[in-house]
Each structure stands twice: as structure tokens, then as C-alpha cells.
Automatic annotation (TrEMBL):
Recorded GO MF terms: protein serine/threonine phosphatase activity
Key words, A-Z: Hydrolase, Membrane, Mitochondrion, Mitochondrion outer membrane, Necrosis
Name listed for the protein in its UniProt record: Serine/threonine-protein phosphatase PGAM5, mitochondrial
Catalyses which reaction(s): O-phospho-L-seryl-[protein] + H2O = L-seryl-[protein] + phosphate; O-phospho-L-threonyl-[protein] + H2O = L-threonyl-[protein] + phosphate
Listed PANTHER family: PHOSPHOGLYCERATE MUTASE-RELATED, SERINE_THREONINE-PROTEIN PHOSPHATASE PGAM5, MITOCHONDRIAL
Subcellular location as annotated: Mitochondrion inner membrane; Mitochondrion outer membrane
Role according to the record: Mitochondrial serine/threonine phosphatase that dephosphorylates various substrates and thus plays a role in different biological processes including cellular senescence or mitophagy. Modulates cellular senescence by regulating mitochondrial dynamics. Mechanistically, participates in mitochondrial fission through dephosphorylating DNM1L/DRP1. Additionally, dephosphorylates MFN2 in a stress-sensitive manner and consequently protects it from ubiquitination and degradation to promote mitochondrial network formation.
Subunit structure: Dimer. Forms a ternary complex with NFE2L2 and KEAP1. Interacts with BCL2L1 and MAP3K5. Upon TNF-induced necrosis, forms in complex with RIPK1, RIPK3 and MLKL; the formation of this complex leads to PGAM5 phosphorylation. Isoform 2, but not isoform 1, interacts with DNM1L; this interaction leads to DNM1L dephosphorylation and activation and eventually to mitochondria fragmentation.
Gene: Pgam5
């Protein structure tokens, strides 16, 4: 029965949220009592008056790793039926949770003539030390550090790595700073050229798709990964991971050296444990430059 239902949903294009809409509509429209039951829809709460309707369903296949979506239902053995489907689904079933720590680089010299001249300030180096100490104090078995190839991110990584000496590190251009998508509402003090959104946006979206997803099916244990990059990149990733409108990324604010903790469960559910945490720094050392 389960196999036939899955096949019907796939054939009708009702996978994920669409199927939920259909089932919800049936449940709401069906009287709970006998034929005389009142089937009128309940009135919405008063606080919703004037609110604009919008998407409210979670896309469980946001990373395209939902097991059912990885199976070609047309290629099946009719005789084995549900047993074959269950076996194939089990092959793609995720078992582990991914913990992703997004670290913004520390304070840096913003007046450098070239990107290579934008090195960390003395305060920025102290911030990175505190961030490294904080990560080390968590007592987690970090699997790897992936960092932006920009100077300020590399220097921040150098300092943090001293506190996590056994953790391997990888540099990537995908995590470099940029303009991910035109913000809404717009701001007057920052107006990149349209071509910058076009070029940077594709790269930062590629970083999201490449790094932010549920664990591979082969992964047996939970993983703890550190990404050291930039405010715009982190803010965009958070909005995308939570399925919030990505145009709202500029409404978030991140301190230098801050820690943002995302959790991706085997089911694909995403939770935000912390956003821009710098509670481990003295107030006089907190900056956002």
C-alpha cells in the first residue's frame, strides 16, 4: 500500500509540500461529526488581521537529498514491489546530523589598497584568539575547517587553528565576500552594481548548495564543521537554510569573530542554535566592521 501511495504522489506531482496541502485541504473540509456538523472554517486570530499571505510550508527536499526523490520509481521490479522500494529507500537514508559553525572573520584594516593589504588589526587578532578558545572549549571533535581565500579570513583561520591543531583546513574561493542578492528593503549606503549581484550571487549560491545540505548516507557519526568566511555570505546562508526570504539577509547583523551554529538533521530539518554569538568576548572588544 505504501508503495502505491508513493507512486501516486510522484505521478501526480504532489511530493513534499504539495501533498501536505492536499491532505490539509481534505482534513479541513471534512466534517468531524455527522452530516449536520458545522464545516465552517475557524476564524483566524485577531493578531493576523492585515497580514499578507505567504509560503508557509517547509520544503523537505530543499537540498535534493530526500530519499524518495533519489529513486527512479519507473525502474522497479513489479513482483518485489514494496520490499524493493523499502530496500532502496534504506540505501539513501541519512543517519547522521551535521553541525555547521559559521565564523565571521575578525576586525581588519579596511583602508588597504589591495585585498592582500586588508590584514587583521591588533584587536582583530585578539578577537580571533577568543573565538578559537571558545570553539576549543566546546569539547567537540571538529572534522574540518573550510575557509574563504581572502586575507582577513585566512589570518582568522591561522589563529583559530592554533587552538584546534588536529583539525584539517581547506581554502575555497566560493566563500569569498560579495553581494549575494539585492536586499529588500534596499539601503542607501550600499549599492553595488547589478553585475556584482549577478556574479557574486551565483558564486555564493553555489557555496550554499555545495556545503549546506544534510549528511551523506554513508556518514555514520554526527559531524562538526567550521566555516570561516564573511558576514554577507553567512547571512545569506542562514536565510537560505531556514527557508526565509533570502532578500532579507541584510536585516541580520554579525559581529567580528562571531559564531553562528546551524544544525541539519537526517530528516533535512534545519535549526539555528546561535546567530552571531560573541558572548565570550568582553564588551569593549565587540566590533562589526
Amino acid at each position: 500500500m505504501a508503495f502505491r501511495q508513493a507512486l501516486q504522489l510522484a505521478a501526480c506531482g504532489l511530493a513534499g509540500g504539495s501533498a501536505a496541502v492536499l491532505l490539509s485541504a481534505v482534513a479541513v473540509g471534512k466534517p468531524r461529526g455527522g452530516g449536520d456538523a458545522d464545516a465552517r472554517a475557524p476564524e483566524p486570530p485577531a493578531w493576523t488581521e492585515g497580514a499578507q499571505p505567504g509560503p508557509s510550508l517547509w520544503d523537505s527536499n530543499w537540498d535534493r537529498r530526500e530519499p524518495l526523490s533519489l529513486i527512479n520509481l519507473r525502474k522497479r521490479n513489479v513482483e518485489s514491489g514494496e520490499e524493493e522500494l523499502a530496500s532502496r529507500l534504506d540505501h539513501y537514508k541519512v543517519k547522521a546530523t551535521r553541525h555547521i559553525f559559521l565564523i565571521r572573520h575578525s576586525q581588519y584594516h579596511m583602508d588597504g589598497a589591495q585585498e592582500e593589504d586588508c590584514t587583521l588589526t591588533p584587536l582583530g587578532r585578539e578577537q580571533a584568539e577568543l573565538t578559537g578558545l571558545r570553539l576549543a572549549s566546546l569539547g567537540l571533535k571538529f572534522n574540518k575547517i573550510i575557509h574563504s581565500s581572502m586575507t582577513r579570513a585566512v589570518e582568522t583561520t591561522d589563529i583559530i587553528s592554533k587552538h584546534l591543531p588536529d583539525v584539517s583546513r581547506v581554502s575555497t574561493d566560493l566563500l569569498r565576500e560579495g553581494a549575494p542578492i539585492e536586499p529588500d528593503p534596499p539601503v542607501s549606503h550600499w549599492k553595488p552594481e547589478a553585475v556584482q549581484y549577478y556574479e557574486d550571487g551565483a558564486r555564493i549560491e553555489a557555496a550554499f548548495r555545495n556545503y549546506i545540505h544534510r549528511a551523506d548516507a554513508e556518514q555514520e557519526e554526527d559531524s562538526y564543521e567550521i566555516f570561516i568566511c564573511h558576514a554577507n555570505v553567512i547571512r545569506y546562508i542562514v536565510c537560505r537554510a531556514l527557508q526565509f526570504p533570502p532578500e532579507g539577509w541584510l536585516r541580520l547583523s554579525l559581529n567580528n569573530g562571531s559564531i553562528t551554529h546551524l544544525v541539519i538533521r537526517p530528516s533535512g530539518r534545519v535549526a539555528l542554535r546561535t546567530l552571531g554569538d560573541t558572548g565570550f568576548m568582553p564588551p569593549n572588544m565587540v566590533t562589526r566592521s
